Amino acid sequence: MSQGGDRTMSDMNEAEDRVIAPVPRITIQAFCETPDVAASIQAAAEDRRMQKAQLKVLMGGAPAAVEAYRHSPTPNVIVLESHGDRFALLALLDQLSEVCDGGTKVMVVGHVNDVILYRELMRRGVSEYIIAPVAVLDIVRSISELFSGPGADPVGRTVAVVGAKGGVGASTVAHNLSWAMARQLSVSTVVVDLDIAFGTAGLDFNQDPPQGIAEAIFAPERLDANLVDRLLSRCSDNLSLLAAPAMLERTTDLVETALDGLLDILRSSVPCIVLDVPHAWTAWVRRTLIGADEIVIVAAPELASLRNAKNLYDTLRQARPNDRKPKILLNQVGVPKRPEIAAAEFAKALGTDISASLPFDAQLFGTAANNGQMIAEVQASGKIAEAFKDLGGAITGRAEPRRSKGNLLEPILARLARRKAS
């Protein structure tokens, strides 16, 4: 059993959208006493952040755990549910400590809010104590924080941007969103162009790096933090680019786990990673979308986009039941003479809100693309640049409060104060 209780009791009122780091490749065994807790832990095993871990749920509580490990090695994490009294649990933990390997972490799920019990558990080296009933995210967060708590390297948030169909401007959205996060919200960001054959991030940022993402994906045996750092092209103080080679010498039939190592390295060193995901449906694209912390689906206000956005939204919601909903961004709204689906009708069909709606502006977007600039560099005070900043703020949690009403009232209140004083 790990020595010393270096964890504090979980705050059950934490915001649901707090970033939870993926659980590393560990083994977990849970010994439960009640069906409800067993069901919650089993459901946690299906969460995307637990995909690398091996979790087994058994019944019998702490007595079963003591018996199980008398003649077998202990896993990385043991989860014990206790419904009994304080003294019985502490006695069983003392027995468990005699058969536990030194590096094993123990997490206890109790049914009483007992400070004295909590202190005794910490004194015995228990890593975490949470109180039933427990939600799926309570379990995932607690296990994750055993390996990514205070003092550990920060884990970055991945934001996947994907188009509901080709030509809706998803890459343009991804690049401008990453620029807004880095330059306007001061969040260190890396934009990763995953369209290896036809990616445009290098053009949009006016960069022509000699190396890029292909070197990281096609030579996994060489992949490490130093290599990734060399492959990044710096666009500004807070923004770096992992560009696509846009070459056709080799095909990009990637295996499902092709990006895992690269994303793990980026998450360990960069607070925000924006993934420019191509419009495709392969195993690696599906895995990338499901594994992202945030998803932005870009669509145009027409029927094909609506159908594809609906399919994407429903599929990702089903695969990510414990995550925030994908955000929907309508792009190219108001093309002259084109019949369009109104934003309200689009949202109603999807069953969710539209996070942002960008008007069609061929002059603005064309100028930015041809000059290798972002929208905010061409038209800093425009509504489109503000929309990217607002979306970035919503994703990063750095949204600036609007003060329009306060600004209008301040001069009125000042005049009233002067009249009263006179």
CATH superfamily of the largest domain: P-loop containing nucleotide triphosphate hydrolases
The main sheet orders its strands as 8-9-7-10-6-11-12-13
SSE pattern, N- to C-terminal: EHEHEHEHEHEHEHHHEEHEHEHEHEHHHH
What's the total helix number?
17
Per DSSP, what share of the residues sits in E-state strands of 2 or more residues? 15-25%
**Would you identify the CATH architecture of the largest domain?**
3-Layer(aba) Sandwich
Count of β-strands? 13
**Coarse structural class:** alpha/beta
Which stretches are low in confidence, meaning pLDDT under 50 for 5 or more residues running? 2-17, 401-416
Domain count, please report it.
2
**Overall spatial form:** elongated
CATH hierarchy class name of the largest domain: Alpha Beta
CATH topology of the largest domain: Rossmann fold
Radius of gyration of CA atoms, rounded to a whole number: 25 Å
Distance between the termini: 74 Å
Write a brief structural summary:
The chain is of the alpha/beta class and 422 residues long.
Could you characterize what this model shows?
By secondary structure, the protein is an alpha/beta fold. The chain has 2 domains: 27-145, Rossmann fold (3-Layer(aba) Sandwich); 157-396, 3-Layer(aba) Sandwich (Rossmann fold), CATH 3.40.50. It has 17 helices and 13 strands. The strands form 2 sheets. Strands 8-9-7-10-6-11-12-13 form an 8-stranded mixed sheet, sandwiched between helices. Strand 11, helix 12 (303-319) and strand 12 (327-333) form a beta-alpha-beta unit. Helix 1 packs across helix 5 and helix 2 packs parallel to helix 3 (86-99). The longest helix has 18 residues, at 404-421. The chain is elongated. It starts with 26 loop residues before the first strand and ends with a helix.
